[in-house]
UniProtKB/TrEMBL annotation:
UniProt lineage: Bacteria, Pseudomonadati, Pseudomonadota, Gammaproteobacteria, Pseudomonadales
Domain GST N-terminal: 46-133
Domain annotation GST C-terminal: ranges: 136-265
SUPFAM superfamilies: GST C-terminal domain-like, Thioredoxin-like
Organism for this UniProt entry: Halopseudomonas formosensis
Pfam families the UniProt entry points to: GST_C (PF00043)
Protein name from the UniProt record: Glutathione-dependent disulfide-bond oxidoreductase
Domain of life: Bacteria
Length: 279
């Protein structure tokens, strides 16, 4: 152990910010910090989110449903600025006590049904409309295998690799190497799966693709963390083929624009009325 090594205290206390891009909103307690009601629009589904990879999963699903002809999937999208702490408003916390985007209300029932966690929302919408999930037991199970794979694996990429590579106040070799190794292992998992399958869960485009593409498709096409070269993304040829194919879908392109205020598109689409809104 070097003389500068950190020695954890017997009991950790929150006495200073941890630094980094999101230090101002990180805290070790849950619950609302301020009173704020959430707006509601006229459509059956009310989405409260931001165009991060987790948020984009749901807007892609909603846009795919609308393109497939499910008019009851019309939604209003309300921007939650996580860097400003909107997720800690009382109205948002009532929907998602974990204060993470995305969150949704299905107002087509009384009382409205709250939904949080992106994987849960995708599965709910797939079952509600009977779309983008196989109906046979084997196909459905394979789809859910990959949906839950994404939910369990992405935190190592986002909270691990992404944080230490892109957001931490200083570059530290050990965590970057540790999480780079895990991220590349996950990219290899997907590349091997896609070597023999056109889509993640087999022959059908599904919520598994919608869940995985915003994170892993974004990474290999350099839209997330700007690390494609560092990760040698081009070497994952099957994953690249899939990522580019999904990116070309019109509903995916529309879904990426909703509630987007960062990145290459400095625009916000606060309400969703019909497909023509994005033409």
């Amino acid at each position: 152990m070097s003389k500068d090594s950190y020695v954890p205290p017997r009991v950790w206390t929150w006495d200073k910010d941890n630094g980094g891009q999101f230090a101002s909103i990180n805290r070790p307690i849950a619950g609302a910090t301020h009173e704020r009601e959430l707006p509601r629009g006229k459509h059956p589904l009310q989405l409260y989110s931001l165009a991060t990879p987790n948020g984009v999963k749901v807007t892609i699903m909603l846009e795919e449903l609308l393109e497939a002809g499910f008019s009851e999937a019309e939604y209003d999208a309300w921007l939650i600025r996580i860097s400003e702490g909107d997720q800690f408003g009382s109205g948002f916390v009532e929907i998602n006590p974990n204060s993470k985007i995305p969150a949704m209300l299905d107002t087509s029932m009384d009382p409205p049904l709250r939904l949080f966690e992106s994987g849960s929302i995708l599965l709910y919408l797939a079952d509600k409309f009977g779309a983008f999930i196989p109906q046979d037991i084997r196909g459905r199970t394979e789809c859910l295998n990959w949906l839950f794979w994404q939910m369990g694996s992405a935190p190592f990429v986002g909270g691990g690799f992404g944080h230490f590579y892109a957001y931490a106040p200083e570059k530290y070799e050990y965590p970057i190497n540790r999480y780079t190794m895990e991220t590349k292992r996950q990219l290899d998992v997907l590349d091997r799966q896609l070597a023999n399958n056109p889509y993640i869960a087999g022959d059908e485009y599904s919520i598994a693709d919608m869940a995985i593409w915003p994170w892993y498709g974004g990474i290999v096409t350099n839209q997330v963390y700007g690390a494609a070269e560092f990760l040698d993304a081009q070497s994952y040829t099957h994953l690249m083929r899939w990522a580019e194919k999904i990116a070309a879908r019109p509903a995916v392109q529309r879904g990426r624009k909703v509630n987007r205020t960062w990145g290459e598109l400095d625009e916000q689409v606060p309400e969703r009325h019909s497909a023509e809104d994005f033409d």
